[in-house]
């Protein structure tokens, strides 16, 4: 191993650790709030919708799988859908209308009041996610944005913004999947380990 390759590895690792620690030091309450909102939605019969492009599409599928299968606890499957997976739907919409509408039409078809839509983007400027968030608002879906610094064009359409304070795509993505894992862990906590903590929120509306 050369000194240069070792430097590259250690610098990236250090930058990632620093950003992760900074994010959770400053934004733990936001993560907990979103997890509680998700748990309440699931407890009331709602579902999770996830969307993203490229690497964020993979994260959307990853997180949906954690809900439907399991995270750490042995517990019942939880309803979650990755809007990135049905190639027939995506290509039909993209071909007949526009790539900008591939998530919007799915949200309009599948989203209901009480569901939660999580839109994942490093830039916050993906037009198809902006359209999806707008559609979510129309349907009464709670909208959550997992974004990089600034939030981009998605920010005004997010009821809750989980913003990683960086403009470096790989580092943002590394922190975003950690946020996703924490949401999975906390949802399980609220639904299966500490139901009494969730009860006041279920009775509050």
From TrEMBL:
Q: Which GO terms describe its biological process?
A: carbohydrate metabolic process; D-glycero-D-manno-heptose 7-phosphate biosynthetic process
Domain SIS: from-to ranges: 38-200
Q: In which pathway does it act?
A: Carbohydrate biosynthesis; D-glycero-D-manno-heptose 7-phosphate biosynthesis; D-glycero-alpha-D-manno-heptose 7-phosphate and D-glycero-beta-D-manno-heptose 7-phosphate from sedoheptulose 7-phosphate: step 1/1
Sites where the protein binds Zn(2+)? 62, 66, 173, 181
A Pfam family: SIS_2
Which segments cross the bilayer?
none
Q: Which family does it belong to?
A: Belongs to the SIS family. GmhA subfamily.
Q: What else is known?
A: The reaction produces a racemic mixture of D-glycero-alpha-D-manno-heptose 7-phosphate and D-glycero-beta-D-manno-heptose 7-phosphate.
Designated name of the protein: Phosphoheptose isomerase
> Which source organism?
Desulfovibrio ferrophilus
This protein's encoding gene: gmhA
């Amino acid at each position: 191993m050369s000194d240069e390759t070792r430097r590259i590895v250690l610098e990236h690792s250090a930058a990632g650790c620093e950003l992760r620690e900074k994010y959770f030091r400053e934004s733990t309450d936001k993560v907990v709030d979103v997890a509680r909102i998700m748990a309440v939605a699931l407890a009331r019969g709602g579902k999770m919708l996830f969307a993203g492009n490229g690497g964020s599409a993979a994260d959307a599928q990853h997180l949906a799988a954690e809900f439907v299968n399991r995270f750490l606890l042995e517990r019942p499957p939880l309803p979650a859908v990755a809007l990135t997976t049905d190639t027939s739907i995506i290509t039909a919409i993209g071909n007949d209308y526009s790539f900008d509408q591939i998530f919007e039409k799915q949200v309009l078809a599948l989203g209901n009041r009480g569901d939660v839509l999580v839109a994942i983007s490093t830039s916050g400027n993906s037009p198809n996610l902006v359209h999806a968030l707008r559609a979510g608002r129309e349907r009464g879906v709670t909208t959550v944005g997992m974004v990089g610094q600034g939030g981009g064009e998605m920010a005004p359409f997010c009821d809750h913004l989980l913003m990683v304070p960086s403009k470096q795509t790989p580092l943002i993505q590394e922190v975003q999947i950690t946020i996703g894992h924490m949401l999975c862990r906390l949802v399980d906590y609220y639904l299966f380990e500490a139901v009494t903590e969730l009860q006041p929120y279920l009775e509050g509306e």
